[in-house]
Design brief:
Elements lengths: L1 H4 L3 H67 L2 H12 L14 H15 L4 H12 L2
Length: 136
C-alpha cells in the first residue's frame, strides 16, 4: 500500500509539466477571447469616424443651403438685384454714363515721375498742375 501512496519521481515531473501546459492553454484561451473583441471594436471606431465625417459634410451642406436660401430671398428684392447688376455685371440704367478707370499702375508711375519736378514748386502750383491735368 505504501507504494501507491507515494508517487515516483518520474510521475512528479510529468504532473508539474502538465500544470504548465494547462496554464499555457488557459492563457491562449484568454488571448483568443480578447482578440475576438478587437475586430468589433475596430469596426465600431471606423464607423464612428465615418459618421463624424458625414455629419461634418452634412453641416457644411446645411450652411450652404441656408446661404442659398438667403440669396434667394435677397434676389426677390429689386434693390439688391440692381446692386448686383451694377457691381458684378457692370450694367447701368438708361441715360447714365459709365466710367471705367484702366491702368491705375501706369498712372502711378507717371505721377511718380512728376513728383521730383514739383518738389520745388509751391502748394498753389502743385494744386494748379493737378487740376489742369484732370481737365482736358
Amino acid at each position: 500500500m505504501s507504494s501507491r501512496a507515494t508517487a515516483s519521481p518520474g510521475m512528479i515531473g510529468f504532473l508539474s509539466r502538465r500544470r504548465g501546459w494547462w496554464r499555457l492553454v488557459v492563457l491562449g484561451i484568454i488571448l483568443l477571447i480578447m482578440g475576438s473583441y478587437v475586430s468589433p471594436v475596430r469596426a465600431y471606431l471606423e464607423k464612428s469616424d465615418a459618421i463624424r465625417r458625414e455629419q461634418s459634410i452634412t453641416d457644411d451642406l446645411r450652411s450652404q443651403h441656408d446661404e442659398l436660401e438667403q440669396e434667394k430671398i435677397n434676389l426677390q428684392n429689386t434693390g439688391y438685384v440692381e446692386q448686383v447688376a451694377r457691381k458684378d455685371l457692370g450694367m447701368v440704367k438708361p441715360g447714365e454714363q459709365p466710367y471705367v478707370v484702366k491702368d491705375l499702375n501706369d498712372g502711378a508711375a507717371a505721377t511718380g515721375a512728376e513728383v521730383p519736378q514739383q518738389q520745388g514748386a509751391s502748394l498753389f502750383d502743385r494744386i494748379k498742375n493737378s487740376v489742369s491735368s484732370l481737365i482736358p
